[in-house]
Amino acid sequence: MRSKILLGVAVVAVFLCSYAGKMMVAGRGLQGDTAGQPAAGGAVPRGSFSRIVSLAPSITETLFALGLGEKVVGVTQFCDYPPEAIKIPKIGGYYDPNYEAIVVLHPDLVLLLDEHQEAKKNLSSTGLRVFPVNHRTISGIVDSIDTIGTLCGREKQAIALLSDIQARVARIKRKTADLPHPPAPSPSVERGKRPHVLLSIGRSMGSGSKDACIAGKEGFYDAMIEIAGGENVYSGTAVRFPLISPEGIAKLNPDVIIDLVADIAKVPGGKQALMAEWNELKDVGAVRDGRVCILTGNHLMRPGPRFIQTVEDIAKAIHPEADWEK
After folding, report:
1. How far is Cα 245 from Cα 204, in angstroms, rounded to an integer?
2. What is the CATH code of the structural domain delimited by 9-13+180-318?
């Protein structure tokens, strides 16, 4: 039986979906839930919540980033950032939350994602206040920070956090705008053109298939590549995470390959083994020109407030010629 190590594919496929590029806090009509029912007029309800349960790592990170960590009484088994979240009682997994464990915690607010339709239904039936947010897009993350801040009385913290994100986006765009030419050696990139980037978010290793799960045109990472000053090499149909063979990668012939690995410690052979796999594609421009970059860290797979750190990492990989020290 073929052995596979899929680096982050399952997590990414659940958390990261559609493309969006809005980077502003807009006064939008968001719908909240009180016992599963939308708030009147679509407005964000406000409340003094002291016992919050989070059903996703990205939500947990958002709560802590807004200074609400002391109010979080339950998180999933995958919530490991910040380190303080590890000590909080666990309510099961992302796919299979333990409803009994949640009810026993007596939360006055349960925050979950739009994808949690079954959990939303089941928890709402118990009378708990349930509120969904969208972490499938960049604009969704931005809006969720604003929304949770409003919901929990942390408006000032939300404004500060979003201002920081906006400033960092502006810095990336400023650093990568109108670069005269790609760094040598990159003869495959025409002057004035954005480098074509292949972003790998999961790979099959070992015996058998060596296919890669890459960022598609309609995916979350497509927006990140654009903000970072690159162009997604994949221009096919609107598939969020297409699976592509080595032959397919050779046909795309990207100028830059970026391999995202959440936990390099779990990869046999580490970065050296991953790089050896990529080096087999000798006819690909990125491999030939030494433009293969392996990025590590669990923030790479988390569509929470730290998404901007991922964008910065990607930008530095695409444009090492930019002065990132200033």
Report:
1. 10
2. 3.40.50.1980
